[in-house]
Amino acid sequence: MFKSKRLIRIAAALLFLVVVFGATALFASDAADVAKNALPLTEESSMPWWGWPLILFVVTFILGILAVLGGVGGGVLFVPIIGGFFPFHLDFVRGAGLLVALAGALAAGPGLLKRGLADLRLAIPVALIASSFAIVGAMIGLALPTNVVQTALGATILGIVAIMLMAKKSEYPEVKQADALSTALRINGIYTEVSTGEEINWQIHRTVKGLLLFIIVGVMAGMFGLGAGWANVPVLNLLMGAPLKISVATSKFLLSITDTSAAWVYINNGAVLPMIVAPSIVGIMLGSIVGVKILVKTKPAAVKYIVIVMLLFAGARAFLKGLGIWT
Hints:
By secondary structure, the protein is mostly helical.
């Protein structure tokens, strides 16, 4: 019975790959023309139209594995690395980055809600603010010159590296008393820690400060197409006092709302290219599945520093490329 279910899953995955790459092929003629305009190269590339999507699939598959092992969102790795080392215009990469992050969030969101880890009362006010300003950020990002966005992206990635190095995660932050706003919104809850069987009562504080910070988080998520998991978790956990698991799960669920808002702006402006998006989403999601299996047998702390080094290099390259120092 187990083997038959496994074979069905493999067959479904293969069918999905065929459909995705078939759909990409249907767009090939139009996409190839667009891609030529998107490539910042003076000479015409001799590579066939399917070459770059194939390479992109392999690279994003590896990024999907590293994202799980390093504890970061796929979009955080995708945008600086693909934008820095692939010959695609940054607008197309940012549009694809939002859809990559969105795909992962949509896949994980229902399960997190079902298990009671993602909290709707916590997510709704945050999502309302972050998604509204993600639209603003996407409009700003598309209006600014590419070199300005590239420089700001590099600075942001370097900031993310600093956060990853310095942030201290707190499993159960001490919140002595909930503030007036969180009490009025009834943002609190109980969840069962599976590893110990213990029931954890939680509440939050500094709600106003946290919601104000999500204005900045929303703008940055839309502007750079990174997704905002890297910022959501520190704000929810370290500032507002939500338990780490609640913060991570709610952050993942939030991406399905905030990234959707910003993604529509990129889609409406024609900044979403199927030959970039399709292999990227398939590669990231398949890599994430493999990454979860590897995570059981490896030490994620070691991989985390590999991810940090990759982001440091990609962020520095984007920053210097935006300034015209590194072409």
